[in-house]
Amino acid sequence: MKITKYIHSCLLFELDGQQILFDPGKFSFNEGLVQPEVFKDVSVVLITHDHPDHLDVVALKKIVALRQAVIISNREVAAELKKHGLAVQIHEEGPWSWARFSCTPCRCSTRPFSTAPCHR
């Protein structure tokens, strides 16, 4: 398996000629160093959550159009993408497999980042 990172959160997984793209967000495309056409062979795009650094709708539309890639995500992302005319296969629990890839979603909680100085 080959894994390539594109700038921030965007990861391309390649195995046996198949490609899955994770989180093509705005940071990956902002400076023009990466173009959506790089992902012309992607069959599946997996979006983890609806933050701009993980989801760039303009770039995603271009990527999907290149090969009619399937978008996999959660209800939150699906609701947002529906507003932009993009269909999403919702998968939030249990294992998911495609070709020789397999992944299992997990829920993660976050908390606000503290701006207070650290003290020992």
From TrEMBL:
Pfam families: Lactamase_B_3. InterPro entries: RibonucZ/Hydroxyglut_hydro, UPF0173_UPF0282_UlaG_hydrolase. It comes from the Bacteria. This is MBL fold metallo-hydrolase. It comes from Hymenobacter humi. The lineage of its organism: Bacteria, Pseudomonadati, Bacteroidota, Cytophagia, Cytophagales.
